[in-house]
Amino acid sequence: MPPEDPVRLTRLLVGGSVLALLSGTAACGLQTIEPKIQLRDALQAFGDQQSVAVRLSVPSSADDVRAFAEATDESVESEDIADEDLDTLLSSSIVYGYDKGEKADDPADDAVSAQVRIGDLTAGEVRAIGETGYARVDLDGLVEEFPDMAEDVDSFRAELDGAPTDVPEALLAPARALVDGDWVSLDATELLEQIEAMGGGSTPEDDKKLQSDLQELGGKALKDAVVSVERKGEDDDLGDHLVVKLNLRKGYATIREGLPGILPESEDPATLEELPPVSEVPDKDVDASVWVRDGELTRAEFDVAQFLDEPAGHLVLRADALDAEPVKAPKDAVPVDVAALMEGAMAVPPGTEEELDAYTIAAWVDMDLTTVASDEGGEPSVEYLPEVMSYYEGATPDLVITAVGAQVQVSTGGETVCLTPSPDGMGEDIADGPC
């Protein structure tokens, strides 16, 4: 913390009569400045930690969530929201962990983890350590929580145990591991190579730089958005309660200005044009609550209901700082065959061919044309059709996809449609009949 301003310090040390005269003004100044410093130092300490763990949850009451839902969507009635669904939401949480690894300055050994919890059940967990991802799911626990899943889970188990199955042979071992609640692993580098070979994706180095740049921009936007910080009380467990007033327009202006300089060159410029101008974002202040104990962040809360035109209920998002532990690779994880996984993802499951009509395939083609064009810095057109044709090999027995001038003709199952490639890949212009 920087030394106090000598002028201010001198004033505070002046004789008793002057001190008494200035005490009220000095106290007001301290209440304005000190909470900001307290918040700044706590945020800095949080960012400097070797390992971080945060639990995200919704602590609102069921009645508040119902009122909020009705206010945001007039078609929603309170009775439309099942009690069971609300109970699941309000008892659920996500625990996020981050570990800088042994080399704090080298992101190569950084690790992250995320757990989805429903009450006392850890329903699923993923970890990413270096270039390897890990996952596990507690299906038995989920079946206890949601009994309607039992039939599907039992059926899938039977397939893996010898009944006819659509699961490729190379994926049977990791599939069985997942069903049994064991860990599986996946080589992220190999997965990205497969995606890149298909005409999409970015390099791990690009992704890490973009993530770092976005985090830095987000921090700057938060700093620029702060209007004031006030201390509102103290909690024995959580520490000082600070209320941070944020201006939406100021924060958004920083993000809107900074995004063009950090997005990859392959990103479609139209993406930024779709963002609203700064002038359309409300010049409105909203409050976020932060608790700080002994210089460390303990909790943060934000009520989304502040965005409503009229107050109605609450939807509070809470983040609790937890005791962090190093994120380690689980032992005996069953590896996933990435090539088999990608091949299975692109294949059409047996028995579903008749469900794929010409219109559906044309819509997919439109989306793929947009993706490939964006990756190559061009505009969606039939020029990129040869690059996406391989995606649809064997999709249906009689599928024919051809370029007709600037359009794409798709025929299957006795149907023919004509696609005019769209700028956003949403398939808005698909006409019945040949081109």
Task: Explain the overall architecture.
- The protein is an alpha+beta fold.
- Helices cover 39% and strands 24% of the residues.
- It folds into 3 domains: 6-44, no CATH class; 49-322, no CATH class; 351-432, no CATH class.
- It contains 14 helices and 16 strands.
- A 12-stranded mixed sheet has the order 7-8-9-10-11-1-2-3-4-5-6-12. Strands 13-14-15-16 form a 4-stranded antiparallel sheet, covered by helices on one side.
- A hairpin with a 2-residue loop joins β14 and β15 (415-419).
- 16% of the residues are buried.
3D shape? globular
> Which structural class is indicated by helix and strand composition?
alpha+beta
- Main sheet makeup: 12 strands, mixed
On the 0 to 100 scale, the average pLDDT is 81
The total strand number stands at 16
Portion in helices:
25-40%
Counted by DSSP, the helix tally is 14
Total domain count:
3
Low-confidence stretches: 1-33, 348-354
Rg value: 28 Å
Approximate strand percentage: 15-25%
Strand order of the largest sheet: 7-8-9-10-11-1-2-3-4-5-6-12
* Helix and strand pattern: HHEHHEEEEHHHEHHEEHHEEEEHHHEEEE
What is the end-to-end distance?
A: 71 Å
